[in-house]
Amino acid sequence: MTTPLTCRNYIAGQWVNAASRSTLESRNPADRRELVATFPRSAAIDVDTAVAAARKAYRTWRLLPAPARAEYVFRVGELLQKYKEELAQLMSREMGKSLTEARGDVQEGIDCAFYNAGEGRRLFGQTTPSEMPNKFAMTVRTPVGVCALITPWNFPIAIPCWKALPALVCGNTVVFKPAEDTPACATKLIEIFVEAGLPEGVINLVHGVGEEVGKALVEHPDVDLVSFTGSSETGAFVASTCGQTHKRVCLEMGGKNAQIVMEDADLELALDGAVWGAFGTTGQRCTATSRLILHRDIKEKFTAMLKERTNKLRLGAGTDPKTDIGPVINERQLQRVSQYLDIAREEGAKVLIGGEIVTEAELEHGYFFEPTILDEVTPEMRVAREEIFGPVVAIIAVNSFEEAIAILNNTPYGLSSSIYTRDINRAFVAMRDIEAGITYINGPTIGAEVHLPFGGVKQTGNGHREAGTAALDVFTEWKTVYVDFSGSLQRAQIDNRS
């Protein structure tokens, strides 16, 4: 047990308490007896102050040349390297993921910082010929304004970096609302931004509950853009509200990702992918493998291999180097996973292993759920269509490649997908026909890289993408510029030709 941290909001260059001085607690999900941090329970008045600070700072920040803005982002990357282990240890205690995964989370933030720092010397527009003589035409990128960033707990460093770093390079200012399960990670991240020297008001942190702080941000008239990562249900509210107030909105929401294993696959390789995809981060990733679509010719063999490997996985605190699977994030999520197992049984699915809340004495103070394999699942079952967000994978048997693709597509979501096959023709058909924003060939459904677009289709997103150059389209507006040096009136879109 360590001394609890006292987190505060960061507004206009100052660390401050919520106006109400109310606080909440963040506890270690592997051992809820450990208080990791206290943090402000902010309200609309705190959001008002933060947005006003961001609006004021925007006037000057947007005028700073993009290469100069990028230098701040580069320093953030250097500081993330410096504090990588400290952040990983804190993350593992606060949200439960293993130290190996926590270090990877921070590394993703580092990669994102250096990548976006490079964009400060690009931010390319276009030049194009005008249809008229002595006239020049081009496009340039301009910032959007004040950006509200609402992030989840499962990647408490990587996802805020995905959003904040391109937003800042593009000339926007930020109000950051982190998940209430990971306030300490968010606070340490903002301390790094402060140490990097960002001017006051350029980045602001407001802790609190989503229904209070998040809602106030989404509804605020001086917020120009909302970038939200979370559930599809909450995303629908965000999209509806932003639509009514004409805000730009970027949504990254749920997934019900599947890995197909065909009869010609390398089964050992597919097994590695299935275990990592299903149980990495305790299944608490929007890209987690929650469905395994197995060709009947290899289903029995592959299922036996999966059971054997899963039985060897060790549960425990993420800070323990021997741990394979950590806790789920909180009591509410633990009960949600358990309820889905009740639903699975009622629907006729067979629990091959797992399926229960862990009650062993050494883990009784944490939120642990057994790694679970469901068999005899049909595509219509709720456990085959709804996001569980826990260490649960459902096996669905198919007779053909075409059936596998059809079942993979048969959900409301479309984030990540995977197929294991040695048939190059099947691989290319899968790339064409799978309805998902991300497709892996002979790789698991998790493993995004920061220089490539991230996001999905259907109820997973609203058409935008995070990461890569696609993020620039979220955080900038296009402006078209014409320069007429003819010295006379030229009328575009009028038939001037004889």
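The above is record 1. Record 2 follows with the same two-line structure.
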Amino acid sequence: MNALKQTLRIAASSSAIDPVAVCHRLAGYDFPWELNRSLEIAVLKTFCVPRISSLLHQTGEFEHRTQKRYDDTGLILGNILKWGYDSPQGSAAIMQMNRIHQRFHIHNEDFLYVLSTLIYEPIRWNRHFGWRPFTSDEKQALFRFWRVVGERMELCQIPETYEAFQDFNQAYEAEHFHYHPDNRAIGDAVVRLMQSWLPAIAAPLVPLVIRAVADESMRLALGWPAPPFQLQQAMLRGLQLRQQLMRRLPRHQRPRFGVDQTNRTYPNGYQLSQLGPDSAPSSGSRCPFFRMRSMLKGEL
């Protein structure tokens, strides 16, 4: 009975939340900078899993076409966040993401972990560095939004509550974060990319900043040394000063979605069909039931 009451209470408290509207506001108005930074950490976290980094190393996408791979990921996620998963743009972005992923054999739990980082890394970042933390409703909206996306990706066994998915996220990291040379190779490639965006005099700061905001489990899995303590404290203090300044500034009245900004890979615009690797062999699916369903549909 207590469990039933709790389920009804959670459903009642979240029924009025429109996850698409909330995530649209968070990504475009309230936290565009924070979400971008937290999703960069989320991407780096996926490289802490040898099973994932080894696949990326085999494809060569993150090492040889780093900017394109970075931009493709941002544009797919950005279109889903800006327009919502039911919109023509969001639906097309999810379909393209599915086409890309179907070329590779990826474990369902690996998909679930990547999906979970899109929920919990923004929440963790804002708790430490955002001009305010997310509210309970915003946390639930992030969970519900990305859970629906996971369903559209045809993932299996997606946890049904915010708390259960958070537990999965933490347990997965405890089990699967291990150092592997591929982790380091992919992580270093992304750091070099970020350095290329800055003037030469500022580029050496990039790995120091990233190592300062990365937790110990990330640094160990990526083979990165901890930054000098005093430098780490200075970096964190700088982010906290920004946090305090942003609290005093007026909120954005116009949207600042990443997909609306100038793109390095596609300066003249893009089609969603351009995003992802040019070609790759098909090697399985994410869910043990998906392949059977595809066969019944005559898709294989």
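The radius of gyration is 19 Å.
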